[in-house]
Amino acid sequence: KEQHLLSSVNCWYLVLNQTRRESRDHATLNDIYINNVIVRLAQISEDVIRLFKK
Q: InterPro entries this protein is in (predicted)?
């Protein structure tokens, strides 16, 4: 029974570690989007508005 308990604990430990990794990955993607993609889209939007005003 003790081995079964250890297996359960190991399983939860693996799930916890995977969740932490995914959380870090999501935070990294968030930084990429905020610092690059969103800024670039705003620039494109401003360019398009200027083109239509001409």
A: AH/BAR_dom_sf, SLIT-ROBO_RhoGAP
- Rg over alpha carbons for the chain, rounded to the nearest Å, is 23
User: 18 burial class (0-12, 13-18, 19+ CB within 10 angstroms)?
Assistant: exposed
- pTM > 0.70: yes or no: no
Distance CA 28, CA 35 (A): 11
Judging by beta carbons within 10 Å of its beta carbon (0-12, 13-18, 19+), is residue 27 exposed, middle or buried?
Answer: exposed
The confidence score (pLDDT) of residue 8 equals 86
